[in-house]
Amino acid sequence: MYNYFITFIKDYSENYLGLPKFCWQKISLICINASTIGICFFLSLYFVNEQQLSIPTAGLLISSYGLGTVIGGFVGGKLSDKITPYFVSIISLCIQSACFFFLMYLHSFPTLLIDQFFLGLSAYGFKTSNNMSLLSLCANDFDLRYRTISISHVASNLGLGLSGIFIAGVGTYGFFIIFGLSSLILFVSAIYLVLQGNITNLIAQKDTVEHHSNQIKKSAKINILILSCVFLVGLIIAQLSSTYPLYVQDSFPKLKELAVSILFLLDTTLIVLFQAPLTVLVSKQNKLLITGLGALFMGVGMLILSFSFIFAFAILSCIVWTMGEMLFISTAQLICYENSDSKRKGQTLGLFQSTFAVSNVVGPSLGSFIYQYCSGNILWYCSTIIGVFCFLLCWYFSRFNANTAS
To answer: Where would one find coiled-coil regions in this protein (predicted)?
Structure first.
């Protein structure tokens, strides 16, 4: 039994081996940054309870943050192509740090509106530039890139989970301390990048392969396909922060908030434990097909939720959903990166982040409308249709793009 356990641990740890040292440093920054981004989920409480703003006013401030994320992804990617992702990451971290610092002292609506916009702008600017820098460290090793972007997804989810713990632990001291610590952490991260800059710049490499016109057109079609799927699937993902908790609480009134907490904790735990092994398992398969399967699993997961008359079904729904999330997000992002011109990789990654941000802005309103005037089950049926539709699209195009496996 002991030998079996040791063998299992050794085999499992191999999923995380082989990444360059500086990849791990940037993955750590993703985790730290995600822990501060997670605080933004609690900002509505701060605006309503401590700033004494009305709920509609708080909604406008959150919308300003959302608008910033939409623009930030694209601008961050565009600037990464122009002045290198290294500098964009430092600038973004400094702006984020300043935004959290000013949140401690701002009270008027116009200044808070501007602060929230730049907070969203810098948050997604960093996500885009850091991911581009992270993938460039892998040179031309496709499998290494796939594992790296998958592990970065693990780090992001781990950071969001840590933000909840951070809020629970420090929240008793008030948002003033939360904002101050977040600002300090982000500023220290920027200083760390400055100190590591020369080493990172020496290692980072850009692809020098030039694409023919036919290949460019083919790659553009694939990217349009993927970005379309990202927007549609993003509409489903957006329900996790809006209608999903309401539906779970209504379905299991005895558990209430505990049911939502269990499912969110399960989602994070599954990603942390199984994202890397699952990536290795499917690494040689057609990436378009894997992306489609991810969308399908997410849609089926929501379908199972509509039949969750017992909590065990909700858990099964979460497992299927999370498997789809692990397959879809990392693979879709990697396809966008691989199918872009060497001079526009940042722009393409920026479009990926911006498209996802748009769906996060549109999704809650659209989902809430369907939930209110139709029903929760109708919303999950629509989610299933989206998943099936994206799968069929990816399956169709995968027949003509078999080389996406390498």
So the answer is: none
Centre a 10 Å sphere on the Cβ of residue 213 and count the other Cβ atoms it contains. 7
Q: What range does the domain containing 139 cover?
A: 20-206
The backbone torsions φ and ψ at residue 351, rounded to the nearest 5 degrees and listed phi first, read: -65, -35
Please say which residue of 206, 232, 254 terminates a domain.
206
Number of other residues whose CB lies within 10 A of the CB of residue 353? 25
**Contact call for residues 337 and 349 (beta carbons, < 8 A):** yes
Sequence-ordered list of residues with C-beta below 8 angstroms from that of 120, at least 6 positions apart, any chain: 64, 65, 66, 67, 68, 69, 70, 72
Half-sphere exposure in the Cβ direction for 280 (13 Å, CA): 13
Amino acid identity of residue 299, one-letter, is G
Q: What is the 3-state secondary structure (H, E, C) of 174-225?
A: CHHHHHHHHHHHHHHHHHHHHHHHHHHHHHCCCCCCCCCHHHHHHHHHHHHH
Tokens of 125: 């600017």
CA distance 14 to 174: 42
pLDDT in tens, 96-108: 999 999 999 988 9
Domain presence at residue 11: no
Is the CA virtual torsion 63, 162, 244, 326 positive or negative? Answer: positive
User: What is the H or E stretch that residue 315 is in?
Assistant: helix 311-338
Average pLDDT over residues 294-322: 94
Residues 6+ apart with CB under 8 A from 399: none
Cβ contact 330:277 at 8 Å: no
CB 163, CB 35: distance < 8 Å: yes
Instruction: Quote the DSSP letter at residue 308.
Output: -
pLDDT digits (tens, 9 = 90+) for 16-34: 777 888 888 889 999 999 9
Q: What is the mean pLDDT of the chain?
A: 86
Verify that 193 and 315 share a domain, yes or no.
no
Q: How many domains does the chain have?
A: 2
d(CA 242, CA 222): 31
pTM of the complete model beyond 0.70: yes
